[in-house]
């Protein structure tokens, strides 16, 4: 590409080994780009985008490639814009409780550094030790703590970004209030890299909670666990996490990293309550009592080591399932919390009817279930059956008042189904916004809309 003749100071590669490595994300789809480029600042990004815009070259922004719906998968002939070198924490403001960071910063690193200062950044995707803040913002990532603290959009205050034309903009405010003009920063959150390339992000921080209590509740079946979730929320207790694993997810993790759970455990809830030490102990007792009434065996993590071990097992579910079936299909649905038991029952019924093993886990406290179809996508017959099953799952989800994507976005894999949830008039409005930002359709084309 002539781009690299005109911008010799920007690191790039066209080596086959690099193109292969940057040609896929966690969804399993792949395509080889024409080149990979590593900008180091906003000026680099602006010059790259200006050249790409003038020459109508497609550009695909990339964080760490942990996305589940193909948002970072390049299109043929495109340029991958890897943000991994833009990974600084520019400022931690303890007085105003904000952090200014670059998009390539790893989420887990931010978590650790702010906690050392007695501060707290709640969004915690399972991939937090690998995923980037820019990718989190692009997908509006959530995580287990979203139940109490919300998702990424609730912490984004201000975004500096480069438009497809190469122009630099700043959207949002650095104050905790601000209503001047349209909220463009909120529009960029969750836009999956289709509207602009983020170069700086200002995030809201919270004081670190005083204490945390972690409970493990073991149930005979998934429906009992689901009913416990509804009852806990109805009791006006809001845990910071309320995580669910069914029998298949437990078996997969036990094989990879044993917890020592009995084989007759049909589901589990991993529950955390945080706040003032005295009050959260009382709330933990109420939660334990609710779970016990639904037949659960409840235990409390004795120390930080035990707590971390439980969470390490929870975060290993995806790799554990991948080891079982590398070509599995992962979906990410949400239903109202009081419909979780119905959804779990419906998924069990669909599995029995189709003969396809469905393994479920996720953030049951906010109704977000990660549904895994254990199929081999390289087998044409299995793939056809799975596609029909996905549509049935989405129909059931929408019928219960839910949504077909909770935190993984739309990307490429869910684009064929977006019309099931979003009406044509709303889709046309979204496409109009895309055209306004990106009239030449060079920025992450082929994502969200078919």
Largest sheet: 7 strands, antiparallel
> What is the molecular shape?
globular
> Helix share of residues?
25-40%
What radius of gyration results from the CA coordinates? 22 Å
- The CATH topology assignment of the largest domain is Uridine Diphospho-n-acetylenolpyruvylglucosamine Reductase, domain 3
CATH architecture of the largest domain: 2-Layer Sandwich
Helical run tally: 16
Strand content: 15-25%
Helix/strand structural class: alpha+beta
Distance between the termini: 28 Å
Low-confidence stretches: none
Number of domains: 4
Largest sheet, spatial ordering of strands: 15-12-14-13-17-18-16
Please provide the count of β strands: 18
Write structural notes for this entry.
By secondary structure, this protein is of the alpha+beta class. The chain has four domains: 3-82, 2-Layer Sandwich (Uridine Diphospho-n-acetylenolpyruvylglucosamine Reductase, domain 2); 89-207, 2-Layer Sandwich (Uridine Diphospho-n-acetylenolpyruvylglucosamine Reductase, domain 3); 211-318, Alpha-Beta Plaits, CATH 3.30.70; 325-417, 2-Layer Sandwich (Alpha-Beta Plaits), CATH 3.30.70. 36% of the residues lie in helices and 21% in strands. It has helices at residues 3-6, 16-21, 42-55, 107-115, 133-139, 146-149, 184-188, 222-234, 247-256, 277-293, 304-315, 317-324, 340-354, 380-399, 418-421, 424-437; strands at residues 11-13, 35-38, 59-62, 79-82, 89-93, 98-101, 119-120, 156-162, 168-172, 197-204, 206-207, 211-219, 241-246, 267-275, 297-300, 329-334, 358-363, 368-373. The strands form four sheets. The protein has a seven-stranded antiparallel β-sheet with strand order 15-12-14-13-17-18-16, sandwiched between helices. Strands 5-6-10-8-9 form a five-stranded antiparallel β-sheet. Strands 1-2-4-3 form a four-stranded mixed β-sheet, covered by helices on one side. Helix 9 (247-256) crosses helix 12.
